[in-house]
Amino acid sequence: MAQLLAVPALGGDLDDAPISDLVQQIIDQAIQERASDIHLEPYQDKFLVRARIDGRLTNYAEYPPTLAAAIVSRVKVMSKMNIVERRRPQDGQFTTSFQGRQVDVRVATVATINGEKLVMRLLDSSKPTVELSELGMSETQLVTFQRMFSANNGLILVAGPTGSGKSTTLHSALKIVAVEHKNVVTIEDPVEYVVPGITQIPVHEANDAGFAVQLRAVIRQDPDIIMVGETRDVETARISVQAALTGHLVFSTIHATDAVGAIYRLIQMDIEAHLLASAFRGAISQRLIRRVCENCAEPYKANAAEIKILRLQKLDATNLRRGRGCALCRNTGYRERIAAFQILESNDFLGEFMISRPQPSVFRQHAIDTGMTTMDYEALRLASEGLTTIEEALTLAAAHDIA
Questions:
Q1: What digits encode the pLDDT tens for the residues 219-257?
Q2: What value does the mean pLDDT of the chain take?
Q3: pTM for this entry
Q4: What does the pLDDT look like over 54-92, one tens digit per residue?
Q5: According to the 3-state scheme, what is the secondary structure of the chain?
């Protein structure tokens, strides 16, 4: 666990050095620790700071409850929020600098019984995109992925919850499609990675420039490839499908439980099944799991239960690794994360099956029968290759798939 930060002497003004320095210290240390989010949580007897590092929230610092209002107010001032309003949820943002890098900070508040809770999401747009080979796909999945994104037209969906690495995957895909003779345009909220050679458009919902508005404008910009940061509403979904049907390659993220769920999410948005079947190129679902720390990784022999789990999935148990724990990984044995993927590629038979609109469970089983692997299998595959541990894989794997 990170060392608790020192409590400064209280000043009488929000712009006094102690509180402003403390807030900046919290943010800087969180960035240095590779945190994705900072939680400021008020309780009766303490004011708790937690940071999400490699997907796990950890207690980061603890202060007297008397500091809560001043710290929250300071962040609200930085985010250009109304510091008087303490009952209604508010959203804001600001930019901070750390070691020469610009980091965007998205801020959201909510009122609790003990005061305002505040969450900051840290977005470092200067970090490099990840190479496709480093994402975590198997060789077969990588070939399928490259084939899907090398198409001239169609709709590709990337599904997963917030923070599952969907944007990272799409920006890695841009390296395949962003060639000199094609016009590549992205619509993002926010722009998480800056990619040279492509047109990147930020979304401004408050100014009536959301995804649907920007997407309609982009269609008139002679695009070859369009990346839609998120399909949130029916209008965006319809425009994306129409664009895919008229000769554009469109890929977008969507909130769904798995690759099949992404299809049904659009059907729930009243997208006609026959249009979706014609436009659909493929769907990808992903989840992030912690990666074994390379600095302290060591091989180990599986126990009987672990061997049984791997054998049921027809996986090998000879390359297992785990981290001993070191200063670099904060004694967790894990550092950074890797994605487990589920990839569903369209074909003629799958399109016909889609038009008949079977129950999702029937569709899912059909997809598995025709070659789609489960997320559970992919997580355990990563463990069998020594990239994560079986224990970590089992936090993702569903019991009915490994029993």
A1: 999 999 999 999 989 999 999 999 999 999 999 999 998
A2: 89
A3: 0.85
A4: 999 999 889 999 999 999 999 999 999 999 999 999 999
A5: CCCCCCCCCCCCCCCCHHHHHHHHHHHHHHHHCCEEEEEEEECCCCEEEEEEECCEEEEEEEECHHHHHHHHHHHHHHCCCCCCCCCCCEEEEEEEEECCEEEEEEEEEEEECCEEEEEEEEEECCCCCCCHHHCCCCHHHHHHHHHHHCCCCEEEEEECCCCCCHHHHHHHHHHHHCCCCCCEEEEECCCCCCCCCCEEEECEHHHCECHHHHHHHHHCCCCCEEEECCCCCHHHHHHHHHHHHCCCEEEEEECCCCHHHHHHHHHHCCCCHHHHHHHEEEEEEEEEEEEECCCCEEECCCCHHHHHHHHHCCCCCCCCEEECCCCCCCCCCEEEEEEEEEEEECCHHHHHHHHCCCCHHHHHHHHHHCCCCCHHHHHHHHHHCCCCCHHHHHCCCCHHHHC
